[in-house]
Amino acid sequence: MPHKHSSLRIAAFASGRGSNFSAIVDAIESGELKSTAVGVISNNPDSGVIEFAESKEIPYAVINKNRYPDESELNNKILDTLDEWNANFIVLAGYMKKIDPSIVRKYKNRILNIHPALLPSFGGNKMYGLKVHESVLNSGVKYSGVTVHIVTDEYDKGPIVLQQVVPVYDDDTAEILQKRILKEEHTIYKEAIRLFEEDLVVVLGQRVVRKRENAED
Ligand code: GAR
Q1: How far apart are CA 102 and CA 48, in angstroms?
Q2: Domain residues of the chain, as ranges?
Q3: Which residues are catalytic?
Q4: Closest Cα to atom 7 of ligand 1
Q5: Residue 94 Cα, ligand 1 centroid: separation in angstroms?
Q6: CATH number of the domain at 9-210, please?
Q7: What is the pTM of this model?
Q8: Mutual orientation of helices 19-29 and 48-55 as an angle, nearest 10°?
């Protein structure tokens, strides 16, 4: 039986330059992905990702503590915005805030995050950007990489969808390693999204596994 193709209406959450989001939009524009990018939520009004959304005429919303000091008001604003866009899938693309349990509950197994290391190592609160790569270099590991995982209430601990290994070289700096890894992020994120678009995976506890070819839908 052919797999269901569910068209995803993707909302991205991002805080920074947004190169991962722009790689996803590229894949949509080239037809590699079938999804629609319905909007961007950012806590940072000065982020590159907002500029990018503007240039592509993709809706965006700046939602942060400055504008919504009350936490439940902030989370409700996020939920209302997602409803307004009819979003049915969320990708975190360099979003530096924790996702509230109310959002995780509503979008169960429908929120992906990308992390620039091989989780469960080098993850957790405050582990983002160059800090991740500095910790990797300081630890002496010979391989780092990228992890795409489902977001749960536990920071960086949700079921892993895909990982890509990236070697660490002797003369790496955190910046050089970050660049090598970012390049892989742009490939692996769209591959992970495609698995959900085509309904190819199922979450079994902590594992994300391929649906069996002949399994009934
Ligand atoms: C990416 O490297 C992403 O993996 C990382 O932030 C960067 C965002 O870059 N995310 C984390 O560290 C999450 N803990 P981008 O804005 O160019 O996509």
Answers
A1: 28
A2: 9-210
A3: 115
A4: 94
A5: 4
A6: 3.40.50.170
A7: 0.95
A8: 20
